[in-house]
Amino acid sequence: INDMLSFYETTHPKVIIYINNGFKNFQSLIYEDALHIHINHGESDKSSDHSNQVKGYDYIFVHGPNGYDNYMKYLIKLDPNQLVQTGRPQLDFIKPIKLDTFGRKVVIYAPTWEATHRSMRYTSVDIYGEQIVDALLSDERYYFIYKPHPNLGANDKKVLAIHQAMLEKIKNDPYAITITDTDVNNIYPIVDFAIFDMSSIMTDYLNVDKPFILADVFDPLVHKVDDYNVLKGCNRLTLENVENLLDVVTDEIDNDPMKAHREEIKRVYLGDYKQGESIKKFIDSVSNIIAQRDREVAQKDSEVVS
Asked: 105-270 sits in which CATH class?
């Protein structure tokens, strides 16, 4: 803490921006002469994306109406003036990867990890993972990309074992690849169809307006499924239709049955921004908060002097 506070006291930051709710953030909030902004590292309908912890910050940046509504719906006594909608600035800076997919349609499976507690567990690896890999590797129409969460298997040995088995299968197939070192948003432009768990990378995928399905691993005792707006814009992967996964993939790519619903879902989750507008909104919002901080600190200092 001393090193951190010493750094702040010598650099005099006007705003401090937080990309998660890590416990060390609470130590950083000690610093009094800055305004503290929580931006998170993506948004979905996970409970972590409307955590009561955000009350420790001066402002909470959200992508669009869904993020705003979730905070106001789930939290008690949250000041709506603390919520600032900025869109998703990262989507203004996509650099599509170059990958030889041999003229095949590209399917990506991007599961999340098992997390640390029950209400945050959305991984599908131990339920659907091997069936997904086996099906897509068996069909010569598809090039398969596996993009696992970096923490996958960290807290569950069964999940880790299945993940490792999947990696071995993919490693030995010339029409499949595991990608771990690239921003997933740079992969989406070459993708034709995606299979997701509930996660923020699924939300970002709405930006490319392509078909996807969401793995149904929902626990009705802890997951508020009826509140998940994304389910209005995609179909689900279930224990029933996973047996016919290739038929599902073919139908989604050829017919895109949920396309009409995705445009509205995109606006709800990401806001209504043209290329370049979101980053401008973000910079303008931070600049306004810096100006507010300067006024507040000047007033505080003048009161101390008087």
From this structure: alpha beta
